[in-house]
Design brief:
The protein has three helices and seven strands; from the N terminus they run αβααββββββ. It is an alpha+beta fold. The chain has a five-stranded antiparallel sheet with strand order 4-3-6-1-5. Strands 2-7 form a two-stranded antiparallel ribbon. The radius of gyration is 14 Å and the shape is globular.
Length: about 100
């Protein structure tokens, strides 16, 4: 369970980038990679905002422990939007099934 908490519980700095989604959609996978990804190519996820408790759609998260200041996060998409701090993963957002 501890390992699962590492992936699903924050806090994290959350970002959204439409360019990130478009870039991910252009990526092609080998058959072996498709099997490892469980046939889903996930572009976004929903997390709960730490302050409001509302679900927000994100494209990337960064540990607040590793990056206390969100400006230090290495997320290089020019259209990135900082969404604040999130804590709990809720569900998968946009994705496609790999064939």
């Amino acid at each position: 369970m501890k390992n699962e908490d590492t992936y699903y519980k924050g806090p994290w700095h959350a970002f959204y980038s439409a360019t990130s989604i478009e870039s991910s959609k252009k990526h092609s996978y080998t058959e072996e990679q498709k099997k490892q990804k469980n046939y889903k190519d996930i572009y976004t996820n929903f997390y709960k905002n730490n302050d409001t408790g509302k679900e927000i759609e994100i494209t990337s998260v960064y540990s607040t422990e590793k990056y206390p200041n969100y400006k230090d996060c290495k997320y290089y998409f020019e259209d990135k939007i900082y969404l604040g701090i999130v804590n709990d993963w809720v569900r998968i957002g946009q994705y496609i099934m790999l064939t």
